[in-house]
Design brief:
Radius of gyration: 23 Å
Strand content: 25-35%
Number of helices: 9
Largest sheet: 8 strands, mixed
Order of helices and strands: HHEEEEEHEHEEEEHEEEEEHEHEHEEH
Structural class: alpha+beta
Strand order of the largest sheet: 1-2-6-3-7-18-8-17
Distance between the termini: 32 Å
Length: about 350
């Protein structure tokens, strides 16, 4: 089994994590290494559920903080092994989010008697469908392990604070016609042609900008797939348009569905089915623990444009924010990297806040 040296510099630890592949569903070897390294630390209680590893202090402090990061990455794109160049660590997952995991592991090793009790969560399957998410499995089967006053997701945020997150809804809009031979197309009704009205409404739609706690969340609505046709000589009798909506966290899932559905007059489509949905998370900047960290860091929070697991903590009643090294724009790209300066900064600032 590959071993991890948690006494190593955060840069070396980041490279070691990147060089241990852990695409979604294949986190086992990395989870083994993380579990073994944490179990060797006498100040932590370590438990495991699947390929999710949880380590906790139990010092009786009046406040508990969760520090969480996912172990998995998207599929490789010719970006292994890691390399260090021009003050950056390049490689699969360096930005999203093994740099953040390295910071959290360093905190776990070094903070033997923090001012706040800390629960470290290193979880599986964040980059795939929600039902496999390690945090969701913990919430379902071991919710007590996630109980806390505050949670920090080590998602890449350029070493700044990204508060809250957008919700996401995906739906399929079905438009039907009548099949016919293309040599006698007038005898049928082309479902793809009928679907043009739906696509035009999506093209013309101007997503809203919603300000919450002084942060502007920009919504989005996109057609992400169109499926139709059975053969080149057959008029299509069905066209399915997959729509992806990113909505501001003031909307509930029901509100978001109603908002999207009501954009299309009933006569323009035959079915509207939500295939996936996850609520957003309000920024909660007025919560004392959130305000404490933001004040200590001395940064101006930004809205999180995208979905992260801060939403899962919000559902559990735990305020959470995103704070980690790396530019989120680089996540999932073949050229992703994390700046060495941000690795060191995040480790130092969180150490000072928690000590």
């Amino acid at each position: 089994m590959t071993s991890l040296d948690l006494t190593a510099d955060v840069v070396a630890l980041t490279r070691a994590l990147v060089d241990l592949p852990s695409e979604s569903g294949q986190e086992g070897p990395l989870a083994d290494a993380v579990e073994a390294a944490l179990a060797a630390l006498p100040h932590l209680m370590v438990e495991r559920l699947g390929n999710t590893v949880v380590a906790r202090t139990a010092l009786g402090r009046p406040e508990r903080v969760v520090i969480a990061g996912h172990l998995d990455t998207v599929p490789a794109a010719g970006n292994l092994p890691s390399r260090e160049q021009d003050g950056r660590i390049h490689g699969l997952g360096a930005c999203d989010m093994k740099g953040g995991v390295a910071v959290a592991l360093r905190l776990a090793a070094e903070l033997t008697a923090p001012a706040r009790d800390i629960t470290y969560v290193f979880y599986e399957c964040e980059e795939v469908e929600g039902d496999r998410n390690g945090l969701l499995q913990l919430a379902r089967h071991r919710p007590a392990l996630l109980a806390a006053d505050f949670a920090i997701l080590m998602e890449p945020s350029d070493a700044g604070v990204e508060a809250g997150c957008q919700g996401v809804l995906e739906a399929e809009i079905v438009v039907r016609g009548t099949r016919a031979h293309t040599a006698r197309a007038w005898m049928g009704v082309n479902a793809v042609h009928r679907a043009a009205a739906i696509l035009q409404r999506l093209a013309d739609h101007r997503p809203e900008r919603v300000v919450i706690d002084g942060l502007e969340y920009r919504e989005g609505l996109s057609a992400v797939a169109v499926r139709a046709g059975v053969a080149g000589n057959v008029v299509p009798d069905e066209c399915v348009i997959t729509v992806n909506a990113r909505f501001a966290p003031h909307r509930s899932l029901a509100d978001a569905e109603a908002y999207v559905r009501n954009l299309f007059p009933a006569g323009e489509y035959d079915e509207f089915t939500v295939t996936d949905a996850a609520p957003g998370a309000l920024p909660g900047l007025d919560r004392p623990a959130v305000a404490s960290l933001i004040g200590f860091l001395g940064v101006t929070p930004r809205p999180k444009l995208g979905w992260t697991d801060v939403a899962r903590f919000t559902e559990l009643g735990v305020p959470a924010l995103n704070y980690g090294p790396g530019d989120p724009v680089l996540a999932h790209t073949a050229g992703e990297f994390v700046p060495v300066t941000q690795l060191r900064e995040c480790e130092r600032r969180l150490t000072d806040w928690l000590r």
